[in-house]
Batch of 3 targets.
Target 1
Amino acid sequence: MKYQLDQHGEMLMGQYHERLSVYKRLAQLASTALRQALDAQHVQVTTLDYRVKKEDSLAGKLELKGAKYHSLDDVTDIVGLRVVTFYSADVDKVAAIASEIFDMDWKNSVDKRKLHRLDSFGYNSLHYICRLPKSIVDDPEMPMLNQLSFEIQMRTALQHVWSTLDHDTGYKSEVKIPREYERQFNRLAGMLELIDEEFSRLRNVLTEYRRQMLALEASGQLDEVTLNAETFRRYLEMHPFARLNQRIAAINQAELYPVTLMPFLRILRKLGLETLGDVNRLIEEHSDDAYRLAVAQLGATDLDILSENIGLQNLCYVYVLKHGGGLNGLCQVLEEMRGDDPDNMTLAKKLLEQAQTITFTSI
């Protein structure tokens, strides 16, 4: 393809072809170095990719403003990295890590997030111009790896989506769109920017909530810790049902095999337990009766393999019976455990018969 380049532009294009192998290696090295640094700091991103500007793209740039560039070194985005994060705060994390591992050209770096225009949302990326330090690569045969600049564009996932949609619709094309459509685009951009900010705010709120819950757990104030998926999962890490399980297993010298207890969260909530303190009291107040019920179930059997849900399962049965749930209450618990099984009522009747042979402690 023949480009409309002047003599200076042709010279720059010649330099591009001479350096192409260096640009490709530079892109790979920079991308790998940034990926490793992000992983080391446990920073999750949705995208980290790189590209070397194609010949036709560079030619178009040189046709428009080739006189601006004294040499190809002045074209700082021939090698480009793009990092897309989940949250806006993570853009700053990525930027901080990039500035630590690369040599920065602060003069040519741009924070487009400071534009503060309603129609700029999809373009609010942070652009850093960098070079590879010798701590990353020091190749005497390719010294230009440390001399050539590359660009890192950092933005959030919503900014990236908007930019893609914006480009796809041709909103920023040379054809002037009607004012009513322009207004709709700007309104949507504003809404997405608010959503972006709210996701970051909500993450901060949830992070602080987790810290508070962990502090309460550590201090033993379990009555102040709401029973939910996250707190119950952390509670299970302390193996609160292990002692009861071992007592029950000893009835038949049975082996315990691990299973997840997370499905019991729904059952505990339906029984009216609202905090980890409630779960703790369930164990403290009803373990002896749960053990007695297990003896009634297992004493006349030779079962020698039991799942680790045996203790919690019997705690739930005992809780229902001691709170007046009776046959229907047992059946409801079994339905939560086993689904809509026709044998649930039969099992509930059997449990009730076994429980009637036991004198439960008072509530």
Target 2
Amino acid sequence: MSDDVNNGERSGCGGACSEQDEKRMLSECLNRIHHKILVMSGKGGVGKSTVAVNLAVALSMAGKKVGLLDVDIHGPSVPTMLNLTEERLAAKNDKMLPVRIGELKVMSIGFLLREQDDAVIWRGPMKMGVIKQFLTEVEWGELDYLVIDSPPGTGDEPLSVCQLIGHVDGAIVVTTPQEVSAADVRKSIDFCLKLNLPVLGIVENMSGFVCPKCGEITEIFKSGAGEALADKFGLRLLGKIPLDPQVCNAGDSGKPFVYHFSKTATAKAFESIIAPILALSEKHKSNGSSNQESKAMKIAIPLAAGNLCMHFGHCEQFALIDVDPAGIVTGKTLVTPPPHEPGLLPKWLEEKGVTQIIAGGMGQRAQELFVESGIAVVTGAMGDTPEQLVAEFLAGTLMTGTNSCEH
């Protein structure tokens, strides 16, 4: 494994990027990407990367400028599925250049490994760091869509993406027809709800088996989990992808299925998934490029001497910032917290109507309590005035680093 990957660092700023430099670089990158789509699942082995790769290729075939970002740090499969395992990154003007396949731009940790079998043994902060580099130090250019393939579950990688990007247009959640998969996928949907991340819809993968000889579809698993999830949460079922041997062969041989087998019924099922994704472009044209959520928010920021307090539970005051559904700040209130007592602040802030917290450092247990109270949390923010932090959060350019509290 290369030294850069082993250390979780890269020298895009000469090894000495200031916080302001990182904020600027992230803002410049995100401002040139119109839509960010997260593909996730609660369980491994459901074909999430297959959906992400074919979604990105289908969008590119529709004439869109597309990037595919693989943030599965421990098990990157995108290079294999696109026959890019021998590719290595080039650089220009202190920026990494994504690997290109046609007009599609691709980035993965797999391109930085000396050997494909090398294990990446990292904890959360290092994974957060490399994902940040994939956004700030890769020359993505102007993109209509960035499709982000995350690993299974609701851990560091999808959380880091949401914290760094600030505004993700939505998530596509992948399941298989069985209840054992759906049970874990419900956790992914709950993750999205608690982070105010829109769910664009559910894809039921491996939905029936396509006979390679006659093309007939036979149900070999219990079916309907995708539909049941969509009904339970009021979500859209984007499509059912049958278990087709050609999909498996295409992934193993590095041939994008929707491109090489575009006339098959399975490819048509993949293409149907992109309809609501393409609709984002029309919505973007009609509503402008606003990144605001269509709901009111009350954002709490812990303060010390008027700026962000890096130790959440020991702040002097909280700034409570009211934001209307159009993303306009309508008011600010300063409140003094009650005496520090474990477990008290989540209930106290929930009673004040807080829906979002921007913090420097916060312990893991405190984060869990806030999420249980329906309050989304961003940690790792860097010291600034509450007005500046909220402005960057609403613009999708809030720069975050390592959580300074690990209690």
Target 3
Amino acid sequence: MFQPAPFAGPRAAVTAAALAASLLLPGCDSLTPHYARPPLPVAAAYAAPANAATAAAALPEWRGYFSAPALQALIVEALAQNRDLRIAALRVEQARAAYGIERAARLPLLAAQASGQRQQVPADLSLTRHETITSQYQAGLGVSAWEIDLWGRLASLRDAALQDYLASDAARRAITMSLITHVAEGYFDVREIDQRIALARRTLATRQESYRIYSRRVAVGSTSRLNLTQVETLLLQAQALTSQLEQERDRKRHALQLLVGSPAALAPLDAEAGPLAETLPALPPGLPSALLERRADIVAAEHQLQSANASIGAARAAFFPQVSLTAALGTASAELGGLFAGGSRSWTFAPSITLPLFDGGRRRQNLSLTEARRDSAVANYEKTIQGAFRDVADALSAQAWLGQQVGIAERALLVQRERARLSQLRYDSGAAAFLDVLDAQRDLLSAEQQLIQLRRALLGAGIALYSALGGDPVVAAPPLAAFPYLPRPRT
């Protein structure tokens, strides 16, 4: 380490102050590689059925997309109570604090210092050959080992920490959007089960009445006991289905309760007994390039890439000399009472330069490590984009084909109802066996249950598309204008 001697007089102090001021100028940032967003690793448009509207459009706020009051209440409760979201928010605070630490590293640490010392010197060690007692008191302000960021090492670390903070905030927004859609999925799951249970209970009541009627017929000899056992089979099937659906509803309610974090918020669901006929607004998918700004997980991956890119600048700067400054200004005296008397002023100014000559290849390997992490971040960014592209394409495809399946199921249900009616008429007139009635009623129940499940699946496709396109703009990325003292990323 080379350490110049302290300046010897006021003129030297002025020269040193000028040198320090020049060192305060912004460091060179050319050591950080120029950042350019990687090209889009997907096709220019989505390949999905019935994909006519591709113009980019703003997505509705989640309250405008999920309009059911009960669902909105659940989402509000989940945003306030969900523990995963709390953990994500705390991670953002951790990243914010880490960024604050890196930002503060570029500033000098100014500290007030005061010290006092009394020392007894034996006669055989004293220059006067007499035992003496010496005193020394000092007070002042000092700067200790302040690194002058000539090569932009600290600036690169600060920029990397900023990108880590923005990435963590984007991850929080991705978790928020995921929570909103999962609550919506759970809500419609419970609504689906409620409707299937209501249907099963109506069927069970009908078959209980049929069993009562056929029991009377067997008692008076107007029908065979075989027909009664067939009616009883239908009754037992309806009872088993109702029991299975009740168990499934409890399971889905427990899952929704975990998401929401408050069991009281589930009460409004019990009062809803209407058909599962909710619809969600149509969403224009736009172009894949729009996902780069709307999908929080893609935004987070890009910030992670920018952080890795900035870390390369810090690794490169480690190859250059490190300049640091230690200085102090105050008073010194041999007597405590003379500490602030005239002529007691003292100062020190000690810059130092450190240039490692041999480190066994540590800096070279550290640079290779940061470059490999940058390349890994590029691959992760491209993979995230490809995953988002697939999510949108799958949701668009599901909406198109499930819409057709719902229409087919609605027509099939009408056919099954007519079949069950005609089978009952033919049996009552003696033109058909009761087995035809049994098959028709069993198929009718299956068709009714299938239609409810398909309508629920269609709603799920709408939820998936909303999430895949980026979801709620209310949780969009904070603009970099919130950080006016930072350079804008070069794209």
